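Backbone shapes recur. Consider a single case.
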Amino acid sequence: MHPLTDYATLETRRQFFSHGKNALGAAALATLFGSDRAAFAATPEPVKIALSHAPKAKRVIYLHMVGGPSQMDLFDYKPEMEKWYDKDLPDSIRKGQRLTTMTSGQKRFPIAPSKYTFAQYGKAGTWMNAELLPWFSKCIDEVALIRSMHTEAINHEPAICMLQTGNQITGRPCLGSWVSYGLGSANNDLPTFVVLVAQPSNREQLQAISGRLWSAGFLPGQHAGVSFRTQGDPILYINNPPGVPTGVRRNTLDAIKALNEQNAALVGDPEIHTRIAQYEMAFRMQASVPDLTDLSKEPESTFELYGPDSKKPGTFANTALLTRRLAERGVRFIQVYHNNWDHHSNVAGRMPSQCRDVDQPCYGLLTDLKQRGLLDDTLVLWGGEFGRTIYTQGGLSKKNYGRDHHPRCFTIWAAGGGIKGGVVHGTTDDFSYNIVENPVHVRDFHATLLHLLGFEAERFTFKWQGLDAKLTGVEPARVVKALLA
């Protein structure tokens, strides 16, 4: 069959009847344009979304710790738990809340106090882990700690999907795609939204990380994240094949573009325009990406700032340095994933290596951005998809334990881009199990992020299936004003 016939045959009933609403308009335009069908093939202008107020942030760096860091071992100090060692979690604290299948069959839920030492840092005297985050403690005054984050999702896939897209079901646009759609590009030679996956030094229990987390969903495909590899060529096939000079590649792309424009005029599929734009972006990236990833011109002081692993491709430290280079070149949204934070067991063995991976690089990134005048308009976020339980999963000793998933309360930190530094927002109970003051739902977190970028969450929409779809969904979401500078 002919491809155009195939396209028409595969149309759904809804798609077929939706064409009717444009029939009169198309006929009128055809009269105005005459037989010049090329007018319909022109690539549409990028959508420009009106800001509702002056933005504080121009770009976002989101450092996602895949698996869910243990809040009470890092940022949510619970000294009272020392008295509760190996005692069962009271029913009055659990309140019948559901558990995962990993611990629901346990006969006991013994309390596991953090084995790590805490101390106060910064002008506000913020309590945090004193053993595992010595570098990060130096910049705690730049950071707002949100100790009262909460979500409904209790397992990884729906929880990370909720954090990234505002919905527990896959297929919705992610944060980076919404930002790309709203703000557009600040550098025509690099993608608006870049994804980096750093390799943890410990790989005991890795969670799946896939392209659905940086999908554009129902937004135009051009707003999907572009994944850069952290080792080897940043993007596969970025270089011309042997024997193919740049001039030949340019001529080839021009010919492909002409064919795609003809097809767009016949079919009217907006994804054809996305394909044209992506081919052109790939061509421009052949010149911009090698310069971006060439760290040879960075002074030795920069590598010392980010730590000894910053020269090793694929490490979190190296990725953090690359993130700064992306930010200063105008990339709007940089998503970094760091795996192996799913601490069901061996917290004593895994937490030190995880923190060692991110401690100095996070300090280095915030310090580097501040020194270059970028932190004021760069919003930096760090956290996982949920927290961990105060009771142990599996065996318990003073020296080691495990922790299950806990969506009822967890900690995320934010810095720069209009965030008030030195703030601790929200309070949990003595068991770090329930929130007792200033809860922040994922929707509120998203609404606050959009506010800092100049958007009002309720008005920042995209028409989809007859609805004004929003990142924050249909339930109320509020801006957490206590976090704003």
